[in-house]
Design goal:
The structure is a homodimer of 136-residue chains. The first copy, chain A, is of the alpha+beta class and 136 residues long. Chain A is 38% helix and 20% strand. Chain A binds a DNA duplex (30 and 30 nucleotides) through helix 3.
Chain lengths: 136, 136
DNA sequence: GTTTTTTTGCAAATCATTTGCATTTGAAAA
DNA sequence: TTTTCAAATGCAAATGATTTGCAAAAAAAC
């Protein structure tokens, strides 16, 4: 509940590039691409190279601060803070809606019991038609 | 319940390449890569080009006969018949276990109610440590 | 401030996937 | 069946997202 506190993981240096990437990820409402971050920062007048973005996203994902995912019919990765990990995608207009109060948690126990896995994470992607597109 | 019946979607021709790709997908126990299919067929003595595999996987996915997904820390797509769409991945050994009786169905209604989406599909990926790796 | 180590930017390299095109093949029509 | 023609294949070349090498710039340590 409340704001997600951003931080640079221990052992890594604080740089303006790193901080600005986190800032973009924080204000994003759904998973975004490296290119998207690049553009966004360009708009903010922040000059950064794409490779720096990729290197940081890799690091952040390894450290568990971000989650990487792919969307249907897309060839590029998207990244988001973990709380935006589960989402609905409209097949018509592409709208993305975050699922909060993820239903999955209720099934965790069941999965643990059935398969014996010690579960550390999950990612859910749901496709469908959004209310607006249904009307058309 | 029972065997999944393979078929080439209406409007497409029956070719030995197409049939052999479906055969490999059927006997696969979890999502596999295009390269994997290529190797598998090579073993079977079937000569096929990678682009043919990619073209067919694209078609099969568009027609809904296969599902495309990406695994954590992997840069290549995997394909599977829809019944192998939801799976558990062991972060240590990489073992993949299919989730059948997908828990998601129970939440479909809730999601429909909350977001108003007309849901057409979903994909769930769960990470954890398998029972064997837990013992180590 | 100086040193040491990490991070960045740039350009070049990778690598999975896609595409153009000539050739082959399936299947509909004769 | 044979003919006919669009669809499918193979190959090589193109693409495009992501990665990497390396020298220069910037943090944090000294």
């Amino acid at each position: 509940m409340g704001e997600q506190k951003l931080f640079i993981p221990k052992g890594y240096r604080k740089t303006k590039q790193r901080e600005s990437i986190l800032k973009v990820l924080e204000r994003a409402e759904y998973p975004i691409t490296a290119e998207h971050i690049f553009m966004e920062l360009k708009n903010d007048g922040i000059d950064i190279s794409l490779s720096t973005i990729y290197r940081n996203l890799e690091m952040l994902t390894k450290e568990g601060l971000t989650v990487k995912s792919y969307m249907m019919n897309e060839d590029k990765a998207r990244y988001a803070l973990p709380d935006k990990k589960n989402y609905l995608v409209c097949e018509k207009c592409g709208k993305i809606v975050i699922i909060d109060n993820c239903p999955f948690d209720k099934f965790k126990e069941e999965l643990i019991e059935v398969h014996g896995f010690d579960i550390t994470g999950h990612s859910i992607e749901v496709y469908g038609i959004c209310p607006e597109c249904q009307k058309k």
